[in-house]
């Protein structure tokens, strides 16, 4: 399973060039150079993919959970066997450290597939017995052809997070990965061919969001859209899908608070906080980009945190000692750098980082930003209200729970929040009052795939994970039979 410089669409079990025969340059962010081409697909390619998915639906949906389970497990095994190729592809596409792709992205991708392949074996619904009259039972049937659109930060991890439950529940799919990071989705199509996934069950169409992605959202024969990406794009998709009455799952942006009380376990907190601030170059929607520290601990925290951040090794993602790789694209690097400039204009003090890092040799044109810590900003300035989605965090002191809750809940987002305290009553109080879909106490990114995953406010609509995902990808039908 090798890199193919010329990625093709995966439609009806075959690898095909786009009808337009035009292609998009695919950059390696670590060197700033084009390393492959991807299809510049349009609504014609999407139309073919929908037809393929419609053809495949009757057989796949009636195959039975046991046989769908087996095919999905075969795909997971192939991904796991080819960990090295998948991880190298993920690192080359995203700029993330190879070590991270190997330890997180790809293992989680095949775990996603196995999780839903097995969940479907235990997926049940409910029955409601009426004393004298009738028995009700709920059928949960697959929707048909569904659309899955995923982002560039955790490409295969989030792509399989959608694909797996949709397939396990018996749907067929038209999917589009981000045009910035298509390679592992392409390798997944090779794995599907090798696993013997029936043609048309999964179709992957590569291309731009506002062309290929939009064509998927607009297509009347696609019954549901599962999307992860930016809040603005989520709003565009909702506007198109709503009047077409499509089911929608939107996992969007975040501006997550990391709230640190003086009574916390300092060593656990500080090592986790470096990770929750800068993992994947800060390009995880769950990163804690606003750090609030109880006043009496603030100076001790600031000194130790900045010292550790300065030690993070920025470099070639393929080097084993690299902690921080490149951000995903030139335009994203410019966006993140513009927010650092904004922070300075708003009165922020840059304690470390704050600029692009120019490497030597092959990486000299790569998109590297030094991990950046900024203090001295008010909670309601733009830097603390808008999603930056890069290696940039702000820190600020607080005195009371009410005060930090006001700060934490002050943004339009509500994806996740982290709280560090040994006081269990305080942990419960904070968890109840924080406006977020996911609350971590004395930990970060601890993930049980059975739990509901998603945000409130502008961080999204709906939940992924466990039964939530299987229920999203099925339609509930109540059958009532008179005794
Ligand atoms: O997301 P986009 P991007 C945030 C983060 C980032 C911002 C934009 O702040 O800076 O979103 O990132 C496809 N119809 N997150 O550019 O544009 C697009 O091709 C249909 C948070 O990745 O939303 C890609 O496949 N599809 C997020 C996918 O949508 C469209 C992770 C995401 O692209 C489309 C990533 C359209 N009109 C970014 N426009 C998270 N929650 O984890 C684009 N796409």
Write a concise keyword list for the protein shown above.
single chain; Aldehyde Dehydrogenase, Chain A, domain 2; 483 residues; alpha/beta; seven-stranded mixed sheet; 2 domains; binds ligand TXE; Aldehyde Dehydrogenase, Chain A, domain 1; six-stranded mixed sheet; 14 helices; globular
Task: Detail the topology: elements first, then pairings.
Elements: E1 9-11, E2 14-16, E3 23-28, E4 33-39, H1 43-61, H2 65-81, H3 83-94, H4 98-119, E5 127-129, E6 134-142, E7 145-149, H5 155-168, E8 172-176, H6 183-195, E9 202-204, H7 209-218, E10 224-228, H8 231-241, E11 247-251, E12 257-260, H9 266-278, E13 290-294, H10 295-311, H11 330-345, E14 349-352, E15 372-375, E16 392-398, H12 401-408, E17 416-420, H13 424-433, E18 438-441, E19 460-461, H14 466-472, E20 474-482
Helix pairs in contact: 1-7, 2-4, 2-6, 3-4, 4-5, 9-10
The structure holds ligand TXE.
């Amino acid at each position: 399973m090798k890199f193919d410089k010329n990625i093709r669409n995966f439609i009806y079990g075959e690898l095909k060039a786009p009808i337009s025969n035009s292609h998009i340059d695919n950059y390696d962010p670590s060197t700033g150079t084009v390393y492959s081409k991807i299809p510049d697909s349009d609504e014609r390619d999407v139309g073919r993919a929908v037809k393929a998915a419609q053809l495949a639906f009757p057989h796949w949906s009636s195959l039975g959970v046991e046989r769908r389970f087996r095919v999905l497990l075969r795909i997971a095994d192939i991904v796991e066997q080819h960990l090295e190729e998948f991880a190298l592809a993920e690192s080359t596409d995203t700029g993330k450290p190879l070590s991270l792709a190997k330890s997180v992205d790809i293992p989680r991708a095949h775990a996603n597939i196995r999780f839903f392949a097995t969940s479907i074996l235990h997926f049940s619904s409910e029955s409601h017995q009426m004393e004298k009259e009738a028995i009700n039972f709920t059928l949960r049937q697959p929707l048909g052809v569904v659309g899955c659109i995923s982002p560039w930060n955790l490409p295969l991890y989030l792509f399989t997070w959608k694909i797996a439950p949709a397939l396990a529940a018996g749907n067929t799919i038209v999917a589009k990965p981000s045009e910035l990071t298509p390679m592992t989705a392409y390798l997944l199509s090779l794995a599907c061919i090798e696993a013997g996934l029936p043609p048309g069950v999964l179709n992957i169409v590569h291309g731009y969001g506002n062309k290929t992605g939009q064509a998927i959202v607009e297509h009347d024969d696609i019954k549901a859209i599962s999307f992860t990406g930016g809040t603005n794009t989520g709003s565009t998709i909702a506007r198109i899908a709503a009047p077409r009455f499509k089911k929608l799952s939107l996992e969007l942006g975040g501006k997550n608070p990391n709230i640190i009380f003086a009574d916390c376990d300092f060593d656990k907190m500080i090592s986790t906080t470096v990770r929750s601030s800068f993992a994947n170059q800060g390009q995880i929607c769950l990163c804690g980009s606003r750090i609030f520290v109880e006043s009496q601990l603030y100076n001790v925290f600031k000194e130790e945190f900045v010292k550790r951040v300065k030690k993070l090794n920025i470099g070639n993602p393929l080097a084993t000692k690299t902690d921080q790789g490149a951000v995903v694209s030139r335009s994203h690097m410019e966006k993140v750098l513009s927010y650092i400039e904004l922070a300075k204009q708003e009165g922020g003090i840059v304690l470390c980082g704050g600029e692009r890092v120019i490497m030597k040799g092959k990486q000299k044109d790569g998109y590297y930003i030094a991990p950046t810590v900024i203090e001295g900003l008010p909670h309601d300035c733009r830097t603390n209200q808008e999603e930056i989605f890069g290696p940039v965090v702000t820190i600020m002191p607080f005195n009371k729970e009410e005060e930090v809750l006001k700060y934490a809940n002050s943004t339009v987002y509500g994806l996740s929040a982290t709280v560090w305290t040994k006081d269990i009553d305080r942990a419960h109080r904070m968890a109840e009052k924080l406006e977020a879909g996911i609350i971590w106490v004395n930990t970060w990114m601890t993930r049980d795939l059975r739990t509901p995953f998603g945000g409130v406010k502008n961080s999204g609509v709906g939940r992924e994970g466990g039964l939530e995902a299987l229920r999203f990808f099925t339609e509930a039908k109540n059958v009532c039979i008179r005794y």
